[in-house]
Amino acid sequence: MNGVVLIYKEKEFTSFDVVAVVRKLIGQKKVGHTGTLDPNATGVLPVLLGTATKAQDIIPCHDKRYRADFRFGIATDTLDIWGEVTEEKPSNISCEEVEKALESFRGQIEQLPPMYSAVSIDGKRLYQYAREGKEVERRPRTVTVYELELLSYDTRSQSGALYIYCSNGTYIRTIIDDLARSLGTVGVMTDLTRFEACGYKLEDCIRLGELKEMIDNNDFSFLHSVESIFMSYDALEVSDKQAQRFVNGNPLDISRTTLRDHAEDKKIYRVKDRQGNFLSLGIVDGDSLKLYKHF
Predict the structure, then answer these.
(1) Portion of the chain with pLDDT greater than 90, in percent
(2) Alpha-carbon distance 231 to 276, whole Å?
(3) Which of 182, 208, 249, 294 is the most exposed place for a label (fewest CB within 10 A)?
(4) Catalytic-residue membership of 38
(5) How far, in Å, CA of 191 to CA of 111, rounded?
């Protein structure tokens, strides 16, 4: 089975737990996912099956959208409410102060990966060091926050919710921790829902229990095509002869395609036959369209 299953990851499941369950339910070895979600986070987790796993390193859109709840006045070792409390601090931040502070967290920002994260240093995950009580030197990373809005805020409880649209590798817990410290207090993430990832939306996801029920009923409508991963690329239709030539690994003459007058070097296309079937990805290379990745 080749394609994408959109799973609504529930709390207390790791992303690897989800992959293991899907692998067992579907009965095939080649299964992967497109982006880790913390065990206590919920939301969109695209799971790749079969040949779709070859797309793992070339997915064109890794941007994600979240709703993140937070609370000021408390800090933990994991930067979220489920960690051990390391600091408590009186907090009396106004809504206006939060709104103003958010301005400096939009656009390109520098983040220090949290110790409780899957970042690898010297062949070991940061969370493994953290569990041993060690703290290692980390380098800041540049990430992009396209949109950041305050959805709600209660001054009495010093808690609220953020909408965040960001690039791959952005740590939401770190944004909240840094935001709190910029306001002279401390803070933690109290809940996190990812409602869009890699172009896939929350409303299109199913839970693991639903997946099992559908498989038991021989209903495979949950499967999204491999092509769906690449919808941000333009489509290029080729003739039947060109299709056969291309899937065999041979380049096509650009002048014999619809790209003849507007080919852009190094641009990637979804190559399709005249029946609308997705063949592979192609890339413009000079006067030729070459096979970029075959699925």
Answers:
(1) 83
(2) 14
(3) 249
(4) yes
(5) 20
